[in-house]
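Long-time lurker, finally posting.

We've been working with Class III cytochrome C family protein (Candidatus Accumulibacter phosphatis) and I want a structural starting point before designing mutants. I don't trust myself to interpret raw outputs, so I'm hoping someone here can both generate the structure tokens and explain anything notable. Sequence follows.
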Amino acid sequence: MSRIVKIILAANLIALAILAFVYPQLMVAPGTLIPGHQQLDADCFACHTPLMGASSELCISCHKPADIGRLTTVGLPIAKPLTTTPFHQKLATQDCVACHSDHAGVRRFRQQGRFNHALLKKDTLQQCQSCHKAPADSLHQQISGNCSQCHNQEKWLPASFDHNKYFVLDRDHNARCVTCHLGNDYSRYTCYGCHEHSLANIRRKHIEEGIRDFDNCVECHRSADEDDIKGSHGEREGKRDGKRGRKEHDDDD
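Top reply, 14 upvotes:
Generated this for you. Predicted structure of Class III cytochrome C family protein:
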């Protein structure tokens, strides 16, 4: 390659580098800015640090964390906030670029729906309904809070809980959640909420059958069918000699 060609190529590279710094919005911008930042169209370094990309420190120089979702950058109340509950004040770190991108012109720079719940403070992670509206179906209308017992914060579906895996809600047991689960704690349950399942009644019936360990009802009973009984090892016992199967226990002495 001749000396003249090398000089021309070097001059072009230098010119492109200079143009990229002088007119970055024309040379390297990935797309048009969002409407709220269009006044910064010719001032890339209002949000970007040279050679380092977008900077959250520059974001919060205009958007004060205490005012986000409540006031505009000029201190006026927001008439129609994008969320019903301001939550930016509850973030553990102000990492704006983890969720936001100012460039709306190129699809790959649209980061809508990319909120990372790990950015929230620990005590806020359990307050799902302070930001999210509860589903209106008949099941969720009975539940208040504790969403994380069935759902994770990455995806709402699929839910991690299958009630039939533990107990089939058929016949008389198709009841409200609070009948068996008290205080919205779905990791625990009681069968003593019904008159026929009083502690004294259950104890008497099980002692008659020689069964002393009857605290964990669903270990043996998986549905409303009295004859559908499973033993302590989860094996179906069924009917034997015209009677319900029972666990082997010592006598009461």
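Before you design anything, note these points.
The beta strands are 48-49, 53-54, 239-240, 243-244.
Residues 232-253 have pLDDT under 50 and may be disordered.
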